[in-house]
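Review form for a predicted model. The reviewer records the input and the model, then writes brief findings.
Reviewer: anonymous (R2)
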Amino acid sequence: MYEFIDRPVYQQTEGVRLLVWGMRRWVRAAREERCVCRFLASVFETAGVPKAAAPLAATMRILVGNMLVPLRFGAIEHPVITEHEAVLLGALVTASQGEGGRCHTMARLLVHADMAPALASSLIGFAQALAEAGVQLAPEVRATGPGGSDRA
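Model under review:
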């Protein structure tokens, strides 16, 4: 999560940019009382990740009705990732790495306990949709020497 807070969106992997942009678009469409699901489906179809729309819509619906604290998402044009976006990105990265238990723990920090499994499941579904489409989520890590690593 900390690797995302206050970082420029444009410097992120395609998967991270898709999630941030999708969350921000979802919030804007909901505020404008537009059909969020149809809008997301169209956007993710164009991006080549059509299966990602439904899990993201589920994630956002779960958050709206069950969040423990008000979550802050940036405006679409906001250049950096907000704290709450970073928490969701951290949970998504753990989901993409097959760490379902850790993803559930992170989900529990955001929503009521009874909804944490559903939130974790929707994030896992989003991560799987990205993986199936070959969309990179986490940056590649390469060794720099004994005991060290660096992002590629």
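Findings: The mean pLDDT is 87.
Further findings: Residues 9-151 form one domain.
Recommendation: see findings above.
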